[in-house]
Amino acid sequence: MNKTVIDNVGEYLKSNEIKPSFQRIRIFEYLLNSKEHPKVDDIYRSLISEIPTLSKTTVYNTLNLFMEKGIVHLVTIEGTENRYDVNVEDHGHFKCEVCGRVYDFELLELVLETDLPEGFVVKKKDLFFRGICEECYQKMN
After folding, report:
1. Ramachandran angles phi, psi of 108, nearest 5°
2. Residue 2 included in any domain
3. Distances (CA, A) of 71 to 64, 86, 106, 107, 116
């Protein structure tokens, strides 16, 4: 699956009508470079030493702004675990029950087609699998 590439985060945020403060830039850069679909706590713990004035409220508010502007996708896992993803294209997620990592996978077009009653409007598509990733499976066998 293609990783989102953005050359200038500040300009990208501006182009999405977001004022590019240092904290917003660093949070977005963290999301871009994360392969883990991080939780708020992950982002906070990773950036607090670099940005001592950072609060969890700032992380939450920044992520909510990013979602409102459509540049970050909320991935809700098992109804209780919220993670964040800069890949806003339709794709699925797989969570390993052993290591806890969340992986992206591409969806085939047939999975994206729906046969909803007339007048229904799909705003978001989620497909989530849970199991054991290849690395953990190999370690077990």
Report:
1. -75, 150
2. no
3. 10, 6, 18, 20, 27
